[in-house]
Amino acid sequence: MICCRHVGRRAGAVVLLLAAAGCSDSAMGQLVYTTPAKREVTLQSPAVEACHRLPGGAHSVVNYTLYDIRLYTNAHCVLTPAGQDQSGQIGGESFYLATQASVAYTPGQPPWLSYYVIPGTS
User: Fold this and answer.
1) Dihedrals φ, ψ of 40, to 5°?
2) pTM of the entire predicted model
3) Could you write out the DSSP letters of every residue in 34-74?
4) Residues 6 or more apart whose Cβ sits within 8 Å of residue 67
5) pLDDT in tens, 76-117
6) Which of 15, 22, 62, 117 is the most buried (most CB within 10 A)?
7) Which run of H or of E encompasses 97?
């Protein structure tokens, strides 16, 4: 009887752990980017629905998370003051990067300085 009691507790702990993982507020996986100084940086499971900075800036990005992301050329995850012109002349550009996709550096392009994990895309 003692043996069965321990098995029940362990099974309950496993179920609880799996339930918690299913309700995660993170984008499970990795975001890998290369800085303008050619340093590779790996970010693990970023939070969903938050603006994140890319320390050092990013020239190329690979999204190995389960969520799509949007990259920004400014540090605050905003397009422009007016929310329109994305040409880079008035406040920055953005780039939509799907899960399991990558974006390479284009000469002359400003580095990506922040990103936002898009909820509901997993």
Assistant:
1) -90, 130
2) 0.70
3) E-TTS-EEEEESPBSSSEEEEEEEESEEEE-SSS-EEEESS
4) 27, 48, 99, 117, 118, 119, 121, 122
5) 888 755 554 444 444 567 889 999 999 998 888 889 999 999
6) 117
7) strand 94-97
